[in-house]
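PROTOCOL LOG
Step 1. Enter all chains and additional molecules of the complex.
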Amino acid sequence: MSDTHAAHVEASYRSYWIAWAILLVLTLVMISISTKAFLIGGILLKSVIIGAWFMHLKHERAILIWSVVAGILFAGFLFLVIHFDAGTSLL
Amino acid sequence: MAIAQAVETGKAGHQAHGRDHGHPAGFIRKYIFSTDHKVIGVQYLLMAMLMSVVGLGLSLWFRVQLAWPGKAAMTPEQYVAIVTMHGTIMIFFVVSLALSSGLGNFSIPLQVGARDMAYPFLNMLSFWIIVPASAIMILSFFVEGGAAAGGWTAYPPLSALSGFGKVPRGSPGSGMGQTLWLLAMALFIVSFTMGGLNYVATILNLRARGMSLMRMPLTVWTYFVAALLGLLSFPALTAAAIMLLLDRHLGTSFFLPSGLVVSGQQAANVGGTPLLFQHLFWFLGHPEVYVLVLPAIGIAFDVIAAFSRRPPHGYKTSVWALLIIAFLGMIVWGHHMFTSGMNPFLGKYFSIATLLITAPFAVLGVNLLASLWRARIRFTTSMLFALGLISAVGTGGIGGLFLATATADLHFHDTYFVVGHFHLMIGVVTMTGTFAGIYYWFPKMFGRHMNETLGKLHFWGTFIGAFALFVIQHFQGFGGMTRRYFEYSADYVQPALALNPAVTWFAFLAVGAQIPFFFNFFWSMFKGKKAEANPWEATTLEWTTATPVPHGNWERLPVVSGKPYGYAEGANGDAHRMQNAEA
Amino acid sequence: MNSTAVTGHEAATHESEPGFYGTSWQKLMMWWFIIGDAILFGSFLAAYGFSRISAVNWPDRTQMFSLNFITVMTFTLITSSATMATAVAASRRGDRKAAFNFTMATAVGGLAFLGMQAYEWYHLIHNGARMDTNPWGAPAFGAYFFAITGFHGSHVASGVLILLITAWNAKRGKSGPEGVELTGLYWHFVDLVWVFVFGCFYLI
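Step 2. Run joint prediction.
Step 3. Record the structure below.
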């Protein structure tokens, strides 16, 4: 265990709790606003923070990041397509 | 030279195998609860063969009803249940098991040069989850009301009207049979997901040294793409199945619309729509087609390369075509729903996107064909099946062009044109690919050859029977014959109906042709001609190890030094270079 | 020769090299499982959005829920995610004791979340909400709410179980940094899903 490694670990400790603080603040901001666009932005920002810091995606290869993004995009595409049908459904 | 080498290593392998005491040698650990990918692959194949007896038997039963109404003892309700179970069993428990799980398990680690799957225990688990899944599927015939009768797509409202609690009963098969169907499918999805994770991890992380992605055999590429597609698309069906179960048993209205009246009884449901289920189902359903079809094409590439003694034409373009097909395959599911009341704007988009898939598919088809160009073809049974596959891909693909066009599909939807088309693709293409693979790898699996005469009998019976049967169904579809009907009375459909006895006879031919195959398979396992380590003089890694393959596949893992298809082009057609040959 | 063959196979699962993704096969599998599970929740939420747009009389959530209570639930889960990340870092540093403590703290956070969710459900059911009825408006909201939070809750519950096993194994030294990290990935994913559930059901 070299010094740089220990320093890296200390830095990651700190970054986790900074991420935690940002997430808390974001949550507090989100419950006090009602603009849809901002709320969606808040959700995406929070998920990026969790993914990048807590799940270490920041340190992974681009291909892993893109695999995750692709999965989420496919699910998003599913919603994008079916929402066109929402008004036309037999209600 | 390379053969001599292979035989030498083969002998050494035999000796090592003989002295190989380090492994659980008991029958149960070796052949039943085995974690060895080769044994698991064969177990899947046997399971698929068992289920195919049921699935094909059902198809003959309802073919008799169609050709000679009244001659097959069944009620209309039973007819729908039989059609449903035929579809489900053949797609998920025969083709998926034999091709994706069976041959995939056997070939992937051998072709990438790994000792086993990444997580052998999980692999064993995925097989043993399939066993109860198959049992539940079969047992659902014998519960009250009979087996599921909502079609293999399990569309609500029919599939949601369970008759439990406040929910009215849709049809006899909508009761317990449909619940068991969903349960069996849930188990299947769990197993298939675990298998897919194993495939991806094995292919990406356990490749032999030197086996770069662009040196992988096309079979491995297709299994890789299929596994990714499965992992990305099956969750949507899981979500739909959970919601359907809640609709059935807890009275929710995810898929059941307001104002539904069932047999004069007003249902209490408010605000759902079957359209939502269709979207979720086909988000899986369409990629699933590629999950099944692509590996068959990949196997055909390998088989054609070995028997035409030429590298497949355009390796790189095939790989890129596969990736593009995978991407497009995820975003075109709506072409199954042109007549469902979907937003017409979406129909336009889905129509165009689907027609785009033609391009990469044409690349694959042309590459398959061009691989034969000026080749000195060895017409083994395996090769015949691979050639049959090319033909079926072409014919089936042309039908797809009609159906992808939204305006044309308005007429073809739910007719026998669709039945003929998808049977050519996920029936004939997949099964010819599977058989090509089985005849090709059988010597590696059991150390013996399958009988070629019986094999050719099997091929011609299957090919002529299946091809005639499904091509004629296209014309019946043109004639207005609709799917899932027990009996027809309209006048306009009479000319199409006249073809039914012929179709049924061809069905008997195609199914009957499987009898020599079954006999050949089990007879050759014990009595077939002994096979060398590399009987086909093929060049991919599975042929570099001994036959029968020792536990752990290689004594020393192979080191890959070149392309997967080291067949010489030009005059000296028999020369070839193994993928691990020293440079 | 015999020994090489045997050790050769024994090593079958340990020969993995960081492949295309630059990770071990275990982590690769976990990630692809997470991607699949994300699409599963994505499908649920897409269906929820579909019904949300279609349905008339969507309930006013401020009447149904106490937003402050939900915020506390969210805090709990986010905090448990932070302790989990710390546990992973501790385990990587070789500090088994800290890894155990922080993993246990995460499990306690998960249990607290489950308790609060149970209270939330009790509150709604007590006021007449069911899978097929919803006194505040569209019944579809009740159905989606119970189905999706229930499914998420089952992920939390299985996560707590995995956390306890990991903590126990980490203490005995059986589960190294890799094992703790895999558990961590799953736990963060559960947290990530909650971000979406929280946003979609209570805010938007």
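Step 4. Note key features.
Chain B has one domain: 34-256+271-544.
The beta strands of chain B are 261-262, 265-266.
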